[in-house]
Task: structure prediction
Amino acid sequence: MTVETAQHQMGMRRFTIQLVIAAIVFTALTFTAIYARSRALLYESLRDQAANHFDLIVTARAWNAHQDGVWVVMRDGVEPNPYLDDLGVDAVIETTDGRQLTLRNPAIMADEISQLLKTRRGITYHLVALEPVNPYNTPDEWERDVLLGFDDSDEPQWTIDHQEQMFRYMRPLKVGGACVPCHQAQSYEIGQVAGATTVEIPMASLNERLRGNVVTLVILGTLSAMAATGSILLMTRRLNAQVSDARNRLVDVARTDELTGLLNRRGTLARLETEVARSARTGTPLALAMLDLDHFKNVNDTFGHSVGDEMLRHFARLVDDESRSYDIVGRLGGEEFLLIAPETDLEEAEIVAERIRTRVAAEPLRMNGEPIPMTVSIGVTELTDGEDIDALLLRADAAMYAAKDAGRDQGVAG
Result:
């Protein structure tokens, strides 16, 4: 072996070692970044979920307070709130037929909802205050620090309790007019931060998935580092495709209505923004149809929310069936849906809306063989030059309410 050959082999060996080291470092950094990004997206999803739960409980509390509390029949497991006595509130009354009713104020109603959620999904709500009437509402150390910080800023705060494997999210509760009568002893002022709600979401299953991701990433990284430069590049391209797919799936989950499988409010409005911009750019027409199931509250009150949910799914299928392949259908919330019709003028949109209305009226929901009639009120409108999304939605909404006012089960152009 000549000196030149030896030097060449040594140089190739060094190059190979450098390539392997570079591949290991590059792969390690790449997979670490992927893991961090995936974890960040999951935490963002947790924050959104916690914020939705907070909005739900605050809305429920506001409704309860607006009704001056809700009276329920006393039975096993439904006892009076002892802390209402301390506030001078008589929490028990007897009806003329001899039944005893007890008052459910906003705080105890929120606690009972929390107990149900904890049993079913492990999610809990904890109402806390610096001067609680109920000792159960005494904050822990983290909650106390956050409560004190709300004097300077009412931005939501969150943390992760790694020991308990729990995601904790906290937002302030401000005093409203309905709160003052029951809390005169605290001398609260309207608008004052009187407490907060902590939403706790279990993370055990999430952490298990993250650990599984770590193992998978280490194995893939090791195999990639041992491969040739061409294989490493190929694996990197495939990995990038997988990451893009994973991100797209996360985006789809965040924009999909869990009940109906349609776009949720966020996803629907995002698509509407895209279509409005495309219409303005290309000069093609764009129409909307705002759809609202008639008397849906009566269905929930009469048959229960499970039947109401099934009606929403049935309605969503009918609307999806009758819409065109390029139409976009989403659920804005409750029983309200939106159909976005690209490259469609008002007259064409009215035809589509009428087809949907006819189909809905002709195919009632059937439960145990019995039909439950369905009708829908539809407001149809077309985008005008220079009109923004808010104005367009407002017109569609107004047209839908005009259909309601005109007797329901019809479409109105606006």
User: Anything to note?
Assistant: Residues 3-66 form the longest helix (64 residues). The CA atoms of residues 96 and 249 lie 57 Å apart. The mean pLDDT is 83.
